[in-house]
Amino acid sequence: MNTIKEKEIGLQAELKAELAEPLPSIGRINIPKTRYINPDVVAQYEKIKTTSMNSLDSLEEKLAEVEARKKKARKLITTHQLRAKKFKKKH
């Protein structure tokens, strides 16, 4: 039982340490990692123009950007690059 309690205490400490770290900055805005959403956090997220308040709209925008990047990448690859090299049979 003591080993389980020790593991639990260790994991709780790791979790608290990870929650204390700030989120990576998006567009030079450092948004702190919090458990609760308060008006200050909402105001910081409103400054970011890449995401909308509706998560589904934001997801659709990002998926459209990914599809556009894939199409550009496909245009850069020519057909001769996609063909497999034929190997000669050894006699």
pLDDT averaged residue by residue: 74
Low-pLDDT residue intervals, each spanning 5 or more residues? none
**Total beta-strand segments:** 0
What is the percent of helical residues? 55-70%
Shape: flat
Given helix and strand content, the structural type is mainly alpha
SSE arrangement, N to C? HHHH
Strand content: under 5%
Oligomer: single chain
Task: Based on the model shown, name its key terms.
91 residues, mainly alpha, 0% strand, flat, coiled coil
Could you explain how this protein is built, in words?
- The chain has a domain of 57 residues.
- Helix content is 59%, strand content 0%.
- The chain is flat and about 70 Å long.
- It is mainly α.
Which helices and strands appear, and what pairs or packs with what?
Layout: H1 2-20, H2 39-47, H3 55-76, H4 79-82
Write a concise synopsis of the structure shown.
The protein has 91 residues and is mainly α. It has helices at residues 2-20, 39-47, 55-76, 79-82. It is 59% helix and 0% strand.
